[in-house]
Every structure is written in structure tokens, then in C-alpha cells.
Amino acid sequence: VQLVESGGGLVQPGGSLRLSCVASGFTFSAYAMTWYRQAPGKERDMVAAITSGAGSTNYADSVKGRFTISRDNAKNTVYLQMNSLKPEDTAVYYCYGRRTWGKGTLVTVSS
Question: CA of 88: how far to CAs of 24, 30, 63, 70, in Å?
């Protein structure tokens, strides 16, 4: 079972990034998936979640209206589209599903 995130990087405030998380080793379509993030010196917090069939999503208040979670079960991939990024979005972003964590991808929002 493996989750591999990608798409992080350095972006200016107001910019956009799309994170991807590719799953392998389990029946991806059967599981809800969640994006978390952990900023330096802070706890890991939930950012966005999506049900197995993508019928329902949930977001942290801090990202509502700016971030969108989606999934492609044919590609075993969950995405996080991040728009209007702010410096406080700087963190390592982790993918979670089937009791498994990815290793994370770093997002830095800075001018």
C-alpha cells in the first residue's frame, strides 16, 4: 500500500498549485481520501476530504472557497487544487487513505 504526493513547490501569494496523490496496492475507489497539512511547529490538520465515490466533500474553514478536492478513481489519484494561496498555506501537504500516509509534498507561499 503506497500513497505518493506530487505538485508542491514555491508559489507567490495569490497563485495556484495542484497537488496529486497516486495510490497503489489497494482498491482506491473503495476508500475516502483526505488531504492534511503540517506547518512548521504546528500540528497536522485536515484540509479537505472526499468520499469514495466523490459524492461528498468537506473542507477546513481556512481553505473553503479557495481549495477543491477531487478524485479520478480510474487513475487511482486524488487531487487538491489550491487557488488564491496565502503565506499561511505554507506547509507540508500529506495524502491519507486506508490508514496510510504519504510522505508529503512541500508547498511554500512566499514573494
Answer: 31, 33, 11, 22
Q: How far is C-alpha 76 from the geometric centre of its chain's CA atoms?
A: 14
Contact 95, 101 (CB under 8 A): yes
Over range 33-38, report the average pLDDT: 98
The owner of cell 504546528 is 42
pLDDT, residue 81, reads 98
Residue among 85, 53, 94, 46 nearest 70 (CA): 53
Find all residues with CB under 8 Å of 64, minimum gap 6, and list them. none
* Mean pLDDT, the chain, integer: 97
Number of H helices, E strands in the chain: 0, 11
